[in-house]
């Protein structure tokens, strides 16, 4: 492994350190269970300060890629067993996109997660929160011809639902998927008129929430996510056929 460690040269050395070790671990170049060199040795070999190495290792530990044992050193984990949601974006970047099985798993989880969010939001959302969601829908109406702007508003819509759910963890979990969401939305919103279809679903969800109809809101969310899944697969399959 030592020969793989070349000096780092970049403005954000900690981020480059993390990225370098993510690549080494996810590729298998550094083995599961392997003990990394000490912070001092890593700093010398990579040409950075010990604080850069220390902060980088802490971030890798947060993602579940390594475990830091006091006075014993840092050991590489099996990320499939120890990894956290924070690792998901790294996997997407490493693979150059979502692996098909990982994509299906993500879409399945999103269906369950967002159905619960909208059900709770319809029951517990305050007048101010419903007003904020209505403002987002109004902004979407003005952004129908701008897929990038609509994509950002779409995320805001779902995040506002999470805020209205009454569960403080749901907005945080949704934020952890922001990068992946925009990665997928970049493909999804390439299809003509998809913005108008999504807007219609958002209007339907908002109307159900104003009526405090959790069942209707959850049903509309489910149909919107099913539509999105089908369309996303069509876009991906078309891209593969053209490559």
What does this structure look like?
It is a single chain. The chain is mostly helical. It has 2 domains: 2-86, Arc Repressor Mutant, subunit A, CATH 1.10.10; 97-242, Four Helix Bundle (Hemerythrin (Met), subunit A). The chain contains 12 helices and 2 strands. It has helices at residues 13-27, 39-46, 50-62, 79-82, 88-95, 100-124, 127-142, 147-164, 169-175, 178-188, 194-210, 214-242; strands at 66-69, 73-76. A two-stranded antiparallel ribbon has the order 1-2. The longest helix has 29 residues, at 214-242. It is elongated. The mean pLDDT is 88.
In short, what is this structure?
The chain has 243 residues and is mainly alpha-helical.
- Average pLDDT, all residues: 88
Oligomer: single chain
Q: Please give the number of β-strands.
A: 2
CATH superfamily caption of the largest domain: GntR ligand-binding domain-like
Succession of helices and strands? HHHEEHHHHHHHHH
Residues in helix, %: over 70%
Task: Name some characteristics of this structure.
2 domains, Arc Repressor Mutant, subunit A, mainly alpha, two-stranded antiparallel sheet, single chain, 243 residues
Layout of SSEs?
Elements: H1 13-27, H2 39-46, H3 50-62, E1 66-69, E2 73-76, H4 79-82, H5 88-95, H6 100-124, H7 127-142, H8 147-164, H9 169-175, H10 178-188, H11 194-210, H12 214-242
Antiparallel strand pairs: 1-2
């Amino acid at each position: 492994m030592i020969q793989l460690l070349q000096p780092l040269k970049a403005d954000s050395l900690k981020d480059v350190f993390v990225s370098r070790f993510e690549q080494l671990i996810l590729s298998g170049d550094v083995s599961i269970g392997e003990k990394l060199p000490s912070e001092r040795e890593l700093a010398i070999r990579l040409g950075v300060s010990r604080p850069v190495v220390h902060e980088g290792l802490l971030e890798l530990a947060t993602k579940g890629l390594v475990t830091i044992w006091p006075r014993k050193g840092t050991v590489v984990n099996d990320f499939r067993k120890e990894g956290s949601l924070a690792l998901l974006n790294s996997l997407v970047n490493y693979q150059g996109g979502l692996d098909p099985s990982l994509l299906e798993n993500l879409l399945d989880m999103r269906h369950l997660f967002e159905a619960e969010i909208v059900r709770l939001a319809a029951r517990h959302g305050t007048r101010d929160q419903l007003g904020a969601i209505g403002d987002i829908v109004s902004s979407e109406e003005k952004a129908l011809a701008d897929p990038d702007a609509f994509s950002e508003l779409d995320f805001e819509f779902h995040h506002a639902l999470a805020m209205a759910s009454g569960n403080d963890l749901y907005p945080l979990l949704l934020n952890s998927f922001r990068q992946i969401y925009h990665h997928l939305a970049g493909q999804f919103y390439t299809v003509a008129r998809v913005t108008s279809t999504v807007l219609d679903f958002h209007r339907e969800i908002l109307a159900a929430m104003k009526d405090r109809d959790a069942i209707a809101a959850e049903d509309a969310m489910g149909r919107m996510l099913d539509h999105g899944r089908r369309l996303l697969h069509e876009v991906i399959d078309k891209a593969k056929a053209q490559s």
